[in-house]
Structure formats: structure tokens, C-alpha cells
Write a structure and sequence with these properties.
By secondary structure, this protein is of the alpha+beta class. It is built from 22 helices and 28 strands. A hairpin with a 2-residue loop joins strand 26 and strand 27. The radius of gyration is 33 Å and the shape is elongated.
Length: 651
């Protein structure tokens, strides 16, 4: 009897140990959810605890504001509904709660896309949870089928009152769901030989990125194709210079930030690859960029000659590579100059492209290039030499003018900046230039240069604003590429650049874009990868209203302060120091907001020279006179709105 009891105890113990081993101690295969993601995924989101993170996002001020936008409203409602459905269904919620999940986006048709969800069930696969789940949903689902694909069972089902069919399969610890059967089948194909997760560039980025609450990856070849749903293929070509990006996402009540890494393709050199091989440079352009600039892009490098050497590789590899070499040789031979000795030699460690709003009819936006120099005297000497060589060889007779203490000269070399630095700078052609502080400023329009001069003199550059200074504390002092965007000003640019149909489509969304008044992006070489960061500061409706009111109040106060040093004559005459779009222009005209002419004056070499007429906002002439060499000359007559002469002066 005792032996029987011992045998029973041993048997029970064996059963218990077997249970513990198989359900608690047995190693469970831990497949990475990324291994089930097909290689045509354009974007991949990796979430450690999707519902906890979604709950945090749902309470976030930025997201709740964006959900009032028609574009995000539908997405928000769908995700909110999904969360409610999950919580209402105990079996489903217990199955996926607190479990890591990967979500990927795939283009399925020329004009459509769909998602794949891969959930790491960990030990949940030891239980027949799918069968239990389907039983729990017996009243909610219909048309449940199963079929095999490459030795893997696929469950097909649809919900009552819904035309959508869902496809589901389980591989060890991975639950995979999509509403497109081809995505599920491609996912099954990946299990035996994963593509993305075994790509060394992707592995490097994933390792550097580490574990975060939310990681996002971009596969640029597929992403460029995905964007063609809404954009032309040509507009996405530049994305193909990148291979992968990985980034962590973080959102507080006032800031949305993205930090991560990217890899570049080795097939074709580009501006970014050239910068990554040229060291880092300082981001100092804020000292000369006006506070109302739409954006500026700062290129940073350790040595200008090294950067240009790398850019030559890019330019030679371009479609017009042979013409580049020919054009460079022609310029140097014709003008008897050396681009390396006479131009590159004085450049320090930063080149910036600046965009300002334009008030003229000639330019829809105003562009300028600011190049940091190493030595003022040497820079002036080199540029003067180039200008002299141009005058010897070309019919250009422009003498240059002085504006608020700065000399503005003319560099009449067509396509010079595109030749030097590629298509990003093709908007600067046969520019004017001036040397100020640590920079040489180039622009097609002397008026643009004048705005920059005025901003520096009046201390209204970005560096003189508290908001910009605080914003820049989030970024490194040195980098390869830094981009600053002012949403308010960029919206004004969009209104000028877009056709009416495109503007009407964009217009309802402008308020949302303007809620992120400052956007910054920074890119820096980090070994074989590129480290990048993006930050957007958020202001809600009330904060935006207060901010705009403060700006308007400040402007009003400035307008109300009287300048007692001005004489009556100076207050009446509208024209002050002017800069036309082209210093070879024969006239300069300025308009009221109602399109009536405010004044017009004849010019010679950019200076006021000849007849001057001034009008009121109704079109009545109120002043008539003449200028000679920028000074009033001869008889000046002043009229009232009825055309009666009220005063006459002679100079």
C-alpha cells in the first residue's frame, strides 16, 4: 500500500513537473515581430505597449487639437473606436494588452494602401485563445473560413454589417492581422527569409535607436512609391537618396519631437552624403536672418574645399555632369579666375539658403545665400578681383551703390551657384552681393539684401528674439544640415506659389500648420549613419491669439511713437532709401494695399534720378518733383486731394 501511495505521489509530481515545464519553464520561441513585416513596408511603427501609449496620446493636447482637423478627425475616430471595442471585448483585450506590437503600412494599389498588425503574444500561443476568441465573438462575426498558404493556416473572417474581410495567422508567438490577403501572404513568405530585419543598415539603425515607447522606421524606396498615391513620381525622387530612417517619437503638451538615425544609399552621391564626408560647421545664420523669414537652410562643414571636392563627385555623377566640367572650365578660362583660389579660399564653415516673403510682383518669394567668411579683407579682395574680371569681359557697367552703410555689388555670372552647389541653389542667378559682419550675402534682388541689412541694423534678426534663442537650445551648436521653418511666413509663401485650386485645398488646414510656429530639423554625421532631430513647438488657439495680439500691439505702439526729428517735408514724402528688384531698372514704383500707386520715381544705377510722383490712396497726385544723384533737385510742388497747389519749394 505504501509503495502504491509513493507511486501515485511520484506520478502526480511528474504530471505537475511536466505542466510546469511545458507551460512555465519550456523556452518559448521569441520571434521579433519585425521578421513578419514584408519588404515593401513604407513605414513601420514599433510600440512596446500600444494601448497604454495610445491612452497617453488620446489625452495629449496636441493630438486632440489635430483631431478637429477634417484629415485627422476620421483617423482619430477610427482609433478611438478601436480602443473602445478592444476594452469591451475581454478576450481580445487580454490577448493583446501589455504586449508589444508592430504596425506597418503597405501600398496595395496605385491609389490605395493598407496596414499589417503584428502582435507579440509571448506565452499566449500555448493556449487555444483564437478558438476561444472566435467563440466569444460568435454573435459579432460571420463567414469564418480557414485555408493554408505555404504550410501556414490563415483564418478569414468578417464582422456583421461590415463588407471588410480580415485575414489572421499565428506563427509561434506572433499574431498577424490585415484586411488585405496579399499583405498576409507576403508576411508568411517573410518568416523563412526576412528581408528588412536582416538588412545590416536597418540593424545598425535599430541598434542605435534602442528601445523606446514608440519607434518609427521609414523604408524610403517603398515610402517614395507610397507617396505617389498623392504626389507625382518626380517629386519623390530625392527621397531615394536615403535608405532607412529610424526615430523615436515623443509628444508633450507643448512640443512634438523626433530623434533618430538614417542611412544613405551608396548608389548615388548627393548633397547629404557630401556634407557627411566634410565635417561639421556652426549654425550661426540666425545672426543675419530676418525674424520674419519663411525658412533658412544651413549647410555646415569643417573645410569649404573638402566640401566642394565632395560636391564635385555629386555634380559629375549627375545627368548634366559633363556639362558641369565644361561650364566650370569655361568660366575660369574666360574670366581668368580660379574658383578654388578666388572663391572657395575665403569661405569658412557655413553656407545658408534663406527665403523671405516678397512684396513685389517680380519675385513670388525672395531668396538669398549667406556665406560665412574667414577674413573680411581677404574676402573683399577676392570678390573685388572677380568683379574686375567680369567688367573686363562683359558689357555690365553697374557701378554698385551704398545702402545704409553697406556696398552692394553685382556678380554677373549666370548659373554660378548651381554650378558650385547643385540644384538646391539654382534660384540664385547673376546675383547682387554685399559683405556684412561675418557673412557675404548674395541675392537676385538688391531689395532682399536691403531687408537683411535693415534687420541686422535694427536688431530684428532671429537671434534677437527670445523665442528663437529658447528654441535653438534644443539643438546642437554644430551640424551638417539645419533647417528652420516659420509656419506663419511659409503659409504666406504658399498662397503666392500655389495655383488657386491648390491654395483652396490647403487653406482649411493653414490654421493647424500655424499652430506649430517654429519647426527645426538637424542632421549630423555619426559614423556611417546620419543622426537627425526634428522639433515642433505647439501653441493652442488661445496661445496663438494672444501671441498674434501681442505682435500686433507691439507694431501699433511702434507706429504711434512720433519721430520728432523729422521735418514736415520728410513726413509728407513717401520715398526713403529704396532698393529696386533690379539696379538696372529705370523706374521704381510702390503700391498701396488697394493696388493704387503710392509713388513712382526714375532711377539711374539704382539711385533716385529723374521725375518723382506721389499719390494718395485714391489715386490723386499730391507731390511732384525731381531727383538728381539721389538728392532732391529743382522745383517741388505739393497738392491737396482736389489738385490745388498748396506749397512749392526749390532745391
Amino acid at each position: 500500500m505504501k509503495k502504491v501511495i509513493i507511486a501515485v505521489i511520484i506520478f502526480i509530481l511528474a504530471i505537475a513537473l511536466t505542466y510546469v515545464y511545458f507551460f512555465h519553464l519550456q523556452p518559448v520561441k521569441k520571434n521579433n515581430p519585425l521578421m513578419a513585416v514584408p519588404k515593401d513596408a513604407s513605414m513601420i511603427f514599433q510600440l512596446e505597449n500600444p494601448f497604454e501609449e495610445w491612452n497617453e496620446i488620446s489625452d495629449n493636447q496636441i493630438w486632440n487639437y489635430l483631431k478637429t482637423n477634417p484629415y485627422f478627425k476620421e483617423i482619430g475616430q477610427e482609433l478611438d473606436s478601436l480602443t473602445v471595442d478592444m476594452k469591451n471585448n475581454k478576450s481580445l483585450y487580454e490577448m493583446v494588452m501589455n504586449r508589444p506590437m508592430v504596425m506597418s503600412i503597405h501600398k496595395t494599389r496605385p491609389d490605395d494602401y493598407d496596414f499589417l498588425y503584428v502582435i507579440d503574444l509571448q506565452r499566449a500561443t500555448q493556449f487555444n485563445f483564437v478558438k476561444n476568441y472566435i467563440q466569444d465573438l460568435d454573435e459579432d462575426i460571420e463567414n469564418v473560413y480557414s485555408r493554408d498558404y505555404n504550410e501556414q493556416e490563415i483564418i478569414e473572417f468578417s464582422f456583421a454589417d461590415s463588407p471588410t474581410t480580415y485575414y489572421l495567422y499565428i506563427h509561434e508567438n506572433l499574431l498577424n492581422v490585415s484586411s488585405t490577403h496579399t499583405i498576409i501572404e507576403q508576411s508568411i513568405d517573410q518568416l523563412k527569409k526576412p528581408d528588412i530585419i536582416r538588412d545590416l543598415d536597418f540593424v545598425d539603425i535599430s541598434n542605435e535607436l534602442g528601445s523606446n515607447d514608440i519607434n518609427m522606421y521609414i523604408n524610403y524606396e517603398a515610402f517614395a512609391d507610397y507617396l505617389t498615391i498623392w504626389m507625382s513620381p518626380n517629386s519623390t525622387e530625392t527621397l531615394k537618396t536615403l535608405k532607412y530612417s529610424g526615430m523615436s517619437l515623443e509628444a508633450t503638451e507643448n512640443v512634438f519631437s523626433v530623434k533618430g538615425y538614417s542611412s544613405l544609399t551608396n548608389e548615388k552621391s548627393n548633397l547629404l552624403s557630401a556634407l557627411m564626408k566634410s565635417g561639421k560647421g556652426e549654425v550661426n545664420a540666425g545672426t543675419i536672418v530676418p525674424g520674419n523669414a519663411s525658412y533658412f537652410m544651413s549647410l555646415g562643414f569643417d573645410n569649404a574645399q573638402d566640401f566642394y571636392t565632395q560636391m564635385e563627385v555629386v555634380l559629375k555623377a549627375a545627368e548634366d555632369g559633363p556639362s558641369y566640367l565644361e561650364s566650370k572650365a569655361k568660366i575660369e578660362d574666360y574670366l581668368k579666375i580660379s574658383i578654388e583660389d578666388d572663391f572657395l579660399s575665403w569661405i569658412d564653415n557655413e553656407i545658408s539658403l534663406i527665403q523671405l516673403n516678397s512684396e513685389s510682383n517680380q519675385n513670388e518669394v525672395e531668396l538669398a545665400v549667406a556665406i560665412k567668411h574667414k577674413d573680411l579683407d581677404d574676402t573683399k579682395e577676392r570678390l573685388d578681383f572677380i568683379a574686375q574680371q567680369i567688367k573686363k569681359k562683359t558689357p555690365v557697367k553697374f557701378k554698385g551703390i551704398k545702402y545704409k552703410g553697406y556696398d552692394i555689388q553685382f556678380l554677373s555670372i549666370k548659373g554660378f551657384f548651381k554650378l558650385m552647389f547643385g540644384n538646391a541653389f539654382k534660384g540664385i542667378d547673376k546675383p547682387y552681393y554685399t559683405i556684412m559682419d561675418d557673412y557675404v550675402i548674395f541675392s537676385n534682388s538688391p531689395r532682399t539684401i536691403g531687408k537683411i541689412i535693415t534687420a541686422v541694423n535694427e536688431k530684428t534678426t532671429l537671434d534677437h528674439t527670445k523665442e528663437y534663442a529658447l528654441f535653438m537650445e534644443n539643438f546642437a551648436y554644430e551640424s551638417n544640415l539645419f533647417v528652420y521653418i516659420s509656419a506663419e511666413e511659409l503659409v504666406l509663401d504658399a498662397k503666392k506659389l500655389l495655383d488657386n485650386e491648390s491654395w483652396q485645398e490647403l487653406k482649411p488646414h493653414t490654421t493647424y500648420f500655424q499652430s506649430f510656429p517654429m519647426i527645426g530639423m538637424q542632421f549630423t554625421a555619426d559614423g556611417d549613419l546620419m543622426r537627425h532631430q526634428m522639433q515642433m513647438n505647439y501653441l493652442n488657439h488661445e496661445q496663438m491669439s494672444n501671441w498674434k495680439a501681442l505682435v500686433q500691439e507691439s507694431s501699433t505702439v511702434q507706429e504711434e511713437v512720433a519721430d520728432t526729428s523729422k521735418t514736415e517735408e520728410e513726413e509728407i514724402i513717401a520715398v526713403e532709401e529704396i532698393l529696386p528688384e533690379d539696379l538696372n531698372s529705370k523706374t521704381f514704383i510702390e503700391y498701396f494695399d488697394n493696388k493704387e500707386i503710392r509713388f513712382e520715381v526714375s532711377l539711374k544705377d539704382g539711385l533716385k534720378h529723374g521725375r518723382y510722383f506721389q499719390y494718395d490712396s485714391l489715386g490723386n497726385m499730391i507731390i511732384k518733383g525731381r531727383y538728381r544723384d539721389d538728392e532732391k533737385s529743382g522745383s517741388w510742388r505739393y497738392y491737396d486731394a482736389e489738385g490745388n497747389l498748396i506749397r512749392k519749394e526749390r532745391f
